[in-house]
Design brief:
It contains 15 helices and 16 strands. The protein is α/β, with parallel strands linked by helices. The strands form 4 sheets. Strands 4-11-10-9-8-5-6-7 form an 8-stranded mixed sheet, with helices on both faces. A hairpin with a 7-residue loop joins strand 12 and strand 13. The protein starts with a helix and ends with a helix.
């Protein structure tokens, strides 16, 4: 029997074991050496078989640990659809709907909060943050009243640069500019590299805050079709990139789809923007919340021309209300600093110092490990519950990190109408219409699963599913 046939035979054997539940999600496959002896074949044949299984998303490799049955091998619901490219039929951002959803931020524990991209209090190191706050107040002789440098708190820039390990020393404290959270960084970057009337590419669906920022600046939004696993359609982007002044993407654990753009795609994206000299505003705020073996690289890692404006923040991992973020603007550093000077002069001094103190003394790595474990457990739980409670024709995303889940429901469902009924039952979510400038995604919703998973949360998800079923 030829080697080619042998590797497919091994792949088929493992596939059958996965389908029959003999091998289940999380199970480790035999090591390459063990499989070589088991099947009495060469090492290369086993490698080829495992690579074939990986290409089908049935198994995943974890460096130093081996091959494991992937979560995607167990999925029973289809992936969400990829929206077609639209160049006309422009509508408006659903501002009234966005205002309604954000109106549910009142600090009340009375509502099950699936809607907003904020981690629950139980996920945050509140005691250690309080300790850092006390350290800073005791240390400051000016009680935090002095102006910071326009570029931002030097202590925080230094600590943030230390923690940017994924960039392998490619940035220093001098490369960073401190901002009032990631959205302020996005807005400032847009102002630095565009002028009214310019076009900016985004994913579709896209985080509604980015949509609003682009439109507020008098810019044109170009929504690029986006795959729930691979991210932005680079072929579609190539067709419009000559007309663009900037791209604004979340390449790691995008909000709302949760995809992790493959490294090869990131390299191709960087090559493309470099060829056309188009800045990429890369919002990487979810990058540390990965489910895999290691933190994925951002596009910034592959950027030699200084065109990638890499954005980070602690809003999703440590302290949403502190509004502390940063950007490594590359060749646009002076323009970004100038825009910051015009907008805010400088950042408040207390909170950047608190975050810097925590990064230095608060065991951020330990916190992130704990956070990721909770998030992953919740992801498995919500995916299982959606599969159990929602209609069989529901389509569900497969996030590789972060804490957003995107559902595509039956076409009869209007989630904007469903939102009002759910809120009457003290349940909320983010309706899909918020995530596009066009009249689309009305049958979709985004769910946040970074909340304490309780019996009530489970029960409310079941209630939400019943509301959906009765509308079909």
């Amino acid at each position: 029997m030829s080697k080619d046939v042998l590797y497919l035979k091994i792949a088929k054997s493992v596939t059958e074991q996965i389908k029959s539940d003999t091998l289940q999600f999380g199970d480790r496959l035999p090591s390459l050496r063990s499989a070589q002896k088991l099947y009495n074949v060469s090492l290369n044949t086993v490698k080829q078989a495992y690579m074939e299984l990986e290409s089908r998303s049935l198994v995943e490799s974890r460096p130093k640990y081996g091959y494991f049955v992937s979560q995607s091998s167990q999925r029973k619901l289809a992936l969400p659809s990829v929206a077609p490219m639209k160049v006309a039929e422009r509508e408006n951002t659903a501002e009234v709907l966005i205002d309604k959803v954000f109106g549910t931020i009142d600090g009340s524990d009375d509502v099950t909060q699936f809607a907003l991209g904020i981690p629950g209090k139980s996920f945050l190191p509140l005691a250690k943050l309080k300790k850092s706050m006390i350290n800073v107040i005791n240390r400051k002789t000016d009680s935090g009243t002095d102006y910071e440098p326009v570029q931002g708190n030097e202590y925080l820039r230094r600590e943030s640069a230390k923690w940017a390990l994924v960039l392998e020393g490619k940035i220093s404290e001098d490369d960073l500019v401190i901002t009032s959270g990631a959205m302020n960084a996005v807005y400032t970057c847009l102002m630095a590299v565009t002028k009214p009337g310019d076009s900016v590419a985004v994913e579709s669906p896209v985080y509604f805050g980015v949509l609003q920022a682009i439109q507020q600046l008098g810019l044109k939004v170009v929504e690029i079709p986006t795959h729930p696993i691979y991210g932005v359609d680079l072929e579609a982007l190539k067709k419009v990139i000559p007309t663009l002044s900037a791209c604004c993407f979340v390449t790691n654990f995008n909000n709302p789809l949760g995809f992790q753009m493959p490294d090869d795609n990131k390299k191709e994206l960087v090559k493309l923007i470099t060829e056309y000299n188009v800045p990429l505003i890369e919002d990487d705020i979810y990058g540390n919340l990965y489910f895999g073996a290691e933190r994925p690289k951002p596009c910034k890692f592959y950027d030699d021309a200084g065109l990638v404006m890499w954005i980070g923040s602690v809003s999703k991992t440590l302290a949403p209300g502190y509004r502390v973020g940063w950007v490594a603007p590359g060749k646009f550093k002076e323009q970004v600093i100038r825009q910051k000077l015009v907008q805010t002069v400088c950042s408040p001094s207390i909170y950047p110092d608190v975050i810097a103190d925590f990064l230095e003394h608060g065991r951020y790595d330990h916190h992130l490990r704990t956070f990721r474990k909770k998030l992953y457990a919740n992801y498995l739980q919500i995916q299982k519950s959606v599969t159990e409670y929602f209609p069989d024709n529901t389509k569900i995303s497969e996030p590789k990190g972060g804490f957003m889940l995107w559902l595509e429901l039956d076409k009869k469902i209007c989630t904007e109408d469903l939102f009002d009924e759910a809120m009457s039952q003290k349940i909320n979510f983010a309706p899909g219409r918020m995530f596009s400038q066009y009249n689309q995604y009305q049958n979709c919703m985004r769910l946040n699963y970074a909340l304490e998973w309780t019996d009530r949360v489970e029960s409310d998800l079941e209630k939400l599913a019943k509301m959906v079923k009765k509308r079909i």
